[in-house]
Amino acid sequence: MDKMKDFFNNLAEDWDNHSKGDPEKMERIFKTAELKDNSKILDIACGTGVLEEFLLKHNPHSILAVDLSEKMIEKAKSKYKDPKITFLCENVFNLKNEKFDFIIVYNAFPHFLEPEKFIEHISTLLNENGQFVICHGMGRKHLNDHHKRTANEISLGLKPASEVAELISSHFNIKSVIEEEHIYIVYGTKK
């Protein structure tokens, strides 16, 4: 875990220069994942808060944005003052007593090195019929090529969306599986 934290702490200062959310992709992700107004949202591995500007457009009840990297969280806090958002430097596995309507993992799923354990934990954090989306603002091939060059030691690589859907299907009803050249979405609701 320290290797992961150190890796992202080292990237935090420059993160926003190369990791920006594409508004069209964000809206496609949220539409596909049926994001509803007034949702209690958990943004896992939020980095510098890339998603928050887009999530706020959907009138959330609240957003808890968590990341392991202190420096990513510091940067995120400096960008947002909205009272609906709470940024927390924490390992998501330490979240136990909260429940959410919508959980999103954007551009981060390959960094969860025990995906089965991660999926099981996520299911405990969702309300009944809660929504869970794993998504990337780039295609699988592009992401895996990028991780081989820059993050090989802290990434499992992104599996085909159909395999990820199968992985989460023990805890989630699969609603949508999209794998295209420039976007990747696996969406399900809690069983």
UniProtKB/TrEMBL annotation:
It comes from the Bacteria. Residues 42-134 form the Methyltransferase type domain. Pfam families: Methyltransf_11. InterPro entries: Methyltransf_11, SAM-dependent_MTases_sf. Coiled coil: none annotated. GO terms for molecular function: transferase activity. PANTHER family: TRANS-ACONITATE 2-METHYLTRANSFERASE-RELATED. This is Methyltransferase type 11 domain-containing protein. It comes from Clostridium thermobutyricum.
